[in-house]
Amino acid sequence: MNKIVITIFLSFFILVSSCNLLKNSNKIENDIVGKWKIENADLSNLEELVVELAESFGLGEAEIEEMKKEMQEDMSNEFIGSTIEFVEDHTFKSPDSEGKWTYNKEENKIEIEENGAKYDLIVDKLIGNTLDLTMVFSENEMEFKFTMSLSRQ
What we know:
By secondary structure, the protein is α+β, with helices and mostly antiparallel strands. It has helices at 2-32, 47-56, 61-79; strands spanning 34-42, 83-86, 91-94, 97-104, 109-114, 117-127, 130-139, 142-152.
């Protein structure tokens, strides 16, 4: 009789644990859904691209530094304050684009497909109304990363 009770208890425990794991991964996906505003973006990792392009045009160090500064300002102005909305049907919308998204729970990232391009948004932090992401994309065999902090709107 005790073996039956223990077997039933263990089966129930395993079932509840499995449901909680599934619930937690679905919770993250559900928490991503909504409209988010980009509050901050660190684009310093894009400097490598600027340097490579500038050197390919034979620009000097002062010109390269000016290009890096201008790129940082332009990219920050483009991103800061813009919004992205992750919709329940796994589409997303931003002021200048739209596409599809999926949440990859194994790698804790949002996979984006936009106009044939694919890139990843690694979820660094998702607490309440704060979402911190690292965007990863490749261009001409180079990989670029930058981070963003977003707030729920």
